[in-house]
From TrEMBL:
It holds the Pfam family HD. The keyword Hydrolase applies. PROSITE patterns: HD. This is Deoxyguanosinetriphosphate triphosphohydrolase. One of its GO terms (molecular function) is dGTPase activity. CDD domains: HDc (cd00077). GO terms for biological process: dGTP catabolic process. It comes from Echinicola strongylocentroti. It comes from the Bacteria.
Length: 447
């Protein structure tokens, strides 16, 4: 892989040739960021759970605020790494590439890293998968799908859903090739011959089976090399996008846990101090009046230190990334990796398994299973079990959005289900709960 090709500003509209913008005040990668900010899928993240149910009094992070913070950290990582790359590869400068361009690529990709996540956090992903694995109304579709299509259904993946949204013509995003590749942390479909557990890029999958051809085109455009059949080596900037997310959720979930009283400040301080190192000043920290102030300064210093360590590690392994020889999370290789692991263990024990989080997850399973059952049954009866297509089914299908077009292509079972999952996974937590109550007869409109 070569940086000159990897940083292509071409736009990912795979159905027609895209023309470069004539704008002088924004680069193509900055345009990506702006398109995402103003898009409906991104706005919907404001009412999607990050970890905690949204409380009435204390501020905790939503998917929207988390994504903005990840993007901010990503820009810092990208710009700093970009300065190194421009010094090492002066030909990039000659091609008009600046460190701010590389920062903009990582920032835009990081901004969208959760755009495909369903309501109710990661429990929502499991709920969609489990519906097709275990629920009778989900299993009836199996005989109508190919093996690779069924694999997509029983392993719903937010990263693949995000890829779908970024290349979907109706969303109007169509980001640059480099941004799309940096977004794709797991460049493979769900079904491959053999998954290599030692490769971080194969831990999950990054696109659904019907987008395999699209990713092949993307890989050809950017010169991404194969790591196996239907799987590729990561774009090097994808490691920075992943690191930005790892840094933010590790530190900020801990901060939220303290805000909600699930973790004591006295437990968090030594963990963050271990990352901050010599710059940690206990006397100065004690001079601050509130716990919120103490958490804010510790969070800022810890993130700053992790950014420095991550960029240094990126420099160390950059050549190995180009050769496809490095395939680990950067935050597993930095000096503070052990400290982050301690934070993760505490977060699992006291935050991710706390009563509010477990209750939210249980509700998510119930709500998404209920919505999928009602809508998928109505679609199945309409096309495959017409003798049981009832008035109830007709009423349910009228609740589908106008964009859910019942044309000939849509009647293909995989396309039907893909669009149904688009509808349900795109919901906010509150809308999903509200619609579930209504279609189940638990609540009436206006109540």
């Amino acid at each position: 892989m070569k940086w000159e090709q990897l940083l292509s500003a071409g736009r990912a509209d795979f159905k027609k040739k895209s023309k470069a913008s004539q704008e002088q005040y924004r680069s193509e990668f900055e345009r990506d960021y702006d398109r995402i900010i103003f898009s409906a899928p991104f706005r919907n993240l404001q009412d999607k759970t990050q970890v905690f149910p949204l409380p009435e009094l204390d501020f905790v992070h939503t998917r929207l605020t988390h994504s903005l913070e990840v993007s901010s950290v990503g820009r810092s990582l990208g710009k700093s790494a970009g300065e190194y790359l421009l010094e090492k590869y002066p030909e990039l400068n000659q091609r008009g590439v600046g460190s701010s361009d590389i920062g903009a690529i990582v920032a835009a990709a990081a901004l969208t890293h959760d755009i495909g996540n369903p309501p109710f956090g990661h429990a929502g992903e499991d709920a969609i998968s489990d519906f097709f694995k275990f629920h009778p109304s989900g299993q009836v579709w199996k005989t109508h799908l190919r093996k690779d299509e069924w694999e997509d259904m029983i392993n719903f993946e937010g990263n693949a859903q995000g890829f779908r949204m970024l290349v979907d013509k109706d969303n109007g995003l169509q980001v640059c090739y480099a941004t799309l590749a940096a977004f794709t942390k797991y460049p493979r479909p769900a079904l491959i011959d053999q998954r290599d557990p030692d490769r971080r890029s194969q831990k999950k999958f990054g696109f659904f089976s019907n987008h395999l051809g699209v990713y092949q085109q993307l890989a050809d455009m950017l010169g991404l090399s194969l790591s196996g059949q239907n799987s590729w080596h990561r774009h090097p900037l994808a490691f920075l996008v992943e690191a930005a997310d790892d840094i933010c959720y590790s530190i900020i979930d801990l901060e939220d846990g303290c805000t909600l009283g699930l973790v004591q400040l006295e437990e968090a301080i030594p963990l963050l101090a271990e990352i901050i190192g010599d710059k940690f000043q206990e006397e100065k920290l004690n001079s601050l009046k509130s716990s919120a102030q103490k958490l804010a300064i510790l969070r800022a210093m810890a993130i700053g230190k992790l950014v420095e360590e991550t960029v240094a590690t990126f420099r160390l392994y950059e050549e190995a990334m180009l050769k496809g020889e490095f395939d680990q999370a950067l935050t597993d290789c930095i000096p503070s990796a052990d400290a982050l692991e301690k934070i993760t263990k505490l977060s699992v024990k006291k935050i991710y398994r706390s009563q509010p989080v477990l209750e939210k997850e249980a509700a998510g399973f119930q709500v998404l299973e209920g919505l999928l059952e009602v809508f998928s049954t109505a679609l199945y009866n309409q096309y495959y079990d017409t003798q049981n297509f009832s008035g109830k089914d007709k009423s349910i299908l009228r609740l589908l959005p106008e964009t859910f077009k019942m044309n000939k292509e849509m009647q293909m079972p995989y396309i039907l289900l893909r669009n149904l999952i688009d509808f349900i996974s795109g919901m906010t937590d509150k809308y999903a709960l509200s619609l579930y109550r209504k279609v189940k007869g638990i609540a009436l409109p206006g109540t």
